[in-house]
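Worked example 3. Consider a protein that binds flavin mononucleotide.
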Amino acid sequence: MKSFDEAFRANLRDLLVWRRDVRRFRNEPLPDGALERLIETACLAPSVGLSQPWRFVIVDDPARRQAVIEDFTACNADALTAYAGERAARYATLKLAGLKEAPGHLAVFADRGTEQGHGLGRRTMPEMIEYSVVTAVYTLWLAARAEEIGMGWVSILDPAHIRRILDVPEGWRFIGYFCLGYPQAESDAPELERAGWEKRSCAQTFIYRR
Ligand SMILES: Cc1cc2nc3c(=O)[nH]c(=O)nc-3n(C[C@H](O)[C@H](O)[C@H](O)COP(=O)(O)O)c2cc1C
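Given these inputs, the predicted complex is written out as structure tokens:
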């Protein structure tokens, strides 16, 4: 049986502790083939019925990238209007995407129409398709961090508009847009915590018993 030793387990925990949502990137390109390699690793993720419903769109086209940046700018300005007072002032100071600086742009979709997996496991819970794609996203996030590549999740976007900008097939549901590149700094604490937006709670808070 393939086994993993104590040193590996400690390294794995370090990887989990030091993975960050990254919005501040160095001005340095990613090596050729880096995104494709990370996507290959992401495809090792679990998926309902082995449906592999993830669809990765590498966005290189400058006009499409610019359109995504403009969509983010509009959605973020709109999001700000939902806050008032001190919370609004604080929101306005947050950096919530590194779209302009990141060398890598990746959009991820879930193909609800896929026949792969023959429907297994999604009869009563069709949303398992989206959950499966999120497992691939997290796999990619960790694999990237293991290569010192930072990734940031951008969700402050209009999904229908993003689907139009990227001209993807009907039936692909937008899961998220990701910035990838080398981080300016590393930390074992989330940026939102460091910015005073929210505190991370301890695991005990989330455990219930019945
Ligand atoms: C589903 C999802 C959507 C997110 N969307 C955004 C986003 O639009 N902008 C942003 O700055 N961070 C976004 N994040 C990152 C979270 O803010 C971040 O994961 C959280 O603050 C914890 O920080 P950490 O990932 O560095 O541990 C998102 C994270 C997840 C899981």
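Take a moment to read the result before moving on. The chain has a mean pLDDT of 98. The helical segments are 6-18, 34-42, 62-80, 85-93, 128-146, 159-166, 191-194.
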